[in-house]
Amino acid sequence: QMPGTSRDDQALAAQAKKKLIQATDPIEKLRLQCLSRGSAGIKGLGRVFRLMGDSKSRTLDFNEFMKGLNEYAVTLDKEEAREIFRIFDKDGSGKIDFDDFLVTLRPPMSNVRKQIIMQAFRRLDRTGDGVITVEDLQGVYNYKHHPKYLNGDWTEEQVFRAFLDNFDSPYEKDGKVTTDDFMNYYAGVSASIDTDIYFIIMMKNAWKI
Q1: Strands 59-61 and 95-97: what pairing?
Q2: Within 10 A of 101 (CB to CB), how many other CB atoms are there?
Q3: What would the pLDDT profile of 125-137 be if each residue is shown by its tens digit?
Q4: Does the predicted model carry a pTM greater than 0.85?
Q5: Domain spans of the chain?
Q6: Whether the predicted pLDDT of 173 surpasses 70
Q7: Band of the pLDDT at 6, cuts 50, 70, 90?
C-alpha cells in the first residue's frame, strides 16, 4: 500500500479546509488552499509556476505569479498576493525564485521526517542519479498485486508509470521523480499525520526500510 493514499488525502484535504476558515496569514492561506487538494497540491502549483516562469533562471515576476495563482484557481486577493510576493522578493528585483518559494510553502517537517523520506527516495533510486524512473522501480516496487495488472488491463510498465504519476502533477507527467517532487509530495502526506513516530512507521512499512 502506498503512503499518501486517497484516504490520507481526504483527511488532509478536510483538515486543510477547516484550518483555512481561520487562517489570516497569506502564506498560510495559500499553503492550506494547496493542501485542500491533497498531498500533491503544492507540487501541482509548482508545476504551474514552472510553465509560467523563466525556466533558465527559475524565476517569476509578479504578473506570472498572479497568472499562475489564477490558473491554479487559488483565491487570494491581489493585496495578499502582493504581500506574499514581497516576502519572497528578498532583493527587491521584482522577481522571485520559485524553488525557494515552494520550499517555504511546504508544510514544516521535522528533520527525522525529512531523513526517512530521503531514505525511501534512495531505496527507490537504484541508479543513484537523483531521479526515480521506471527502470529504478523494477525489482523494488511490487507491481504483481496491482488490481489492473491482476485483471490484465495493464502491463508491468503501465503499473510503474501510474505509480510515478502519483508524484507528478496533471500538468507534467514525465515519468521522472526528483528528490524535490518526492519531498513536496511527502510534505503533503506529512501534514495529515500528527506524530513523527507514526509517520516513520508508515514510511518503513510502505518502503520496507
Answers
A1: antiparallel
A2: 22
A3: 998 999 998 888 8
A4: no
A5: 7-105, 111-207
A6: no
A7: low
Q: Tell me if 7-105 shares its fold with 111-207.
A: yes
pLDDT band (50, 70, 90) for residue 168: low
Q: How many residues does the chain have?
A: 209
Return the C-alpha cell found at 98: 520559485
Largest separation between any pair of C-alpha atoms in the chain:
57
d(CA 135, CA 126): 8
pLDDT at position 121: 94
The class that CATH gives domain 111-207 is mainly alpha
DSSP designation for 54: B
Q: How far apart are CA 88 and CA 100, in angstroms?
A: 8
Distance CA 140, CA 125 (A): 9
The highest-level CATH class for domain 7-105 is: mainly alpha
Distances from the Cα of 154 to the Cαs of 6, 122, 169, in angstroms?
21, 27, 21
Contacts of 189 (CB under 8 A, 6+ apart): 3, 4, 8, 12, 39
To the nearest whole number, what is the mean pLDDT of the chain?
84
